[in-house]
Write a structure and sequence with these properties.
By secondary structure, the chain is an alpha+beta fold. The chain is built from four helices and five strands; from the N terminus they run ααββαβαββ. The chain has one domain. Helices cover about 20% and strands about 30% of the residues. A five-stranded mixed beta barrel has the order 1-2-3-5-4. A hairpin with a 3-residue loop joins β4 and β5. About 10% of the residues have low confidence.
Length: about 180
């Protein structure tokens, strides 16, 4: 635990040096107006399955992004208990601005974090309780698959409540895209 905390502190200090204090602690002020999706395309009821939802900072209520599933192995934020299925998406060029510089680059390999709530609720008892009454029926994408994801665009300040990365969380719709 102590080594992890020291590594985290060192990582944060390096990021501060590379990207500047303001860039890392402030939610992204990205010009994403052209990425907006009509709010009715996003299911606001899914927020009740995010535990705790207060940790996420809303950037855009509803967006659609396309890209290629890059990895299913990601750094999971401490304290997340909603049984999310989390993966990384390498956004198509038109959506690259949704990946902020800081921790999306350093910890998420320059990818956008995607979280499908209640997609694996049996991993923790807290997740099973928070997903009660909901079963996520969206297909789990494969690495290398080109997909379209619709959901809330949020900033997740996972470290010290200040440093984090951008996510689509929760996902309201996911579909395969023909190449």
């Amino acid at each position: 635990m102590r080594k992890t905390l020291l590594r985290l502190t060192a990582t944060v200090l390096i990021l501060l040096a590379l990207f500047g204090f303001e860039r890392l602690i402030l939610p992204p002020a990205i010009g994403i107006a052209f990425h907006r999706t009509l709010p009715e395309k996003c299911d606001s009821r899914l927020w009740q399955f995010i535990n705790p939802s207060e940790r996420l900072k809303m950037v855009q209520e509803c967006v659609t992004v396309t890209g290629v599933v890059d990895s299913k192995a990601t750094v999971i934020a401490p304290g997340e208990h909603e049984g999310s299925y989390q993966f990384l998406l390498k956004p198509d060029p038109d959506y690259q601005d949704m990946v902020d510089g800081g921790l999306n680059v350093v910890l998420q390999h320059g990818d956008l974090v995607i979280q499908m709530v209640c997609a694996r609720p049996n991993i923790k008892s807290e997740a099973a309780a928070s997903c009660e009454g909901y079963s996520n029926s969206m297909p789990i994408p494969e690495v290398g698959q080109h997909i379209q994801v619709t959901g809330s665009f949020v900033y997740n300040p996972v470290f010290l409540g200040k440093f984090g990365w951008n996510e689509i969380h929760p996902v309201s719709d996911l579909a395969s895209v023909a190449n």
